Amino acid sequence: MTTGSPDDILDRVKKTLPGRWFAWGAPYRDALIGGLADSASWCYGLIGYARAQTRIATAYGIWLDLIARDFLADFLTRNGMSDDSFRARLRATILQERVTRKGMINAITALTGNAPVIFEPWNPGDAGAYSGAGFSCGQFGYGVGRGGYGSMNLPGQIFMQVKRGSPSGIPNIGGWANKALGITTPGGYGVGSLAYVNSKSRLTGITDAIIYDVINKTKPTGLIVWVKFV
To answer: I want to staple 174 with a disulfide (CB 3.0 to 4.6 A). Which of 24, 43, 168, 192 is the partner?
Structure first.
């Protein structure tokens, strides 16, 4: 028997009754206690349900939305995300490190599941010093390291590549397919579910707008962030 089931509660109650009160086989007694056991089992399940809603790690459904509203008011909304995706974004928003490069990376990583690639042309740590494979100085060059051309003409600007982790878009509508080009997606001429969309179409999941919003709320103050989705 499952703990907390009606049969489990009925059996527990019967074991507490003195043996001299009733014969072990007493159908009227069992029917009466069985009705109470059904209600007690429902209450037992409700206790487990209520306990789960007291923590962000275990809450689900509408209670996760209420927790988000309790902590952040209208700052954060679900926008069609699953419980797990919404929980990840909620955790990434509450008490997160902000207005630093590390804080921005951590927030985007928690949201998408992928760490963004960041390059600051004015940051020597990203651009480094030029070196060839046969030189010991510097950290970047032909076939050496990973960087880019630095520039003091782009102060306070960041170039970022973000890889979406969770799916987003319009539910039940596939991408465009062109078999002549070898593109295989669910939608196309006579293939799958297809529709025209525009800027007013409602998107679900972790959308570009959500990622932009996280970046704007965590980026270092005064910096411009150029974003490329890959």
So the answer is: 192
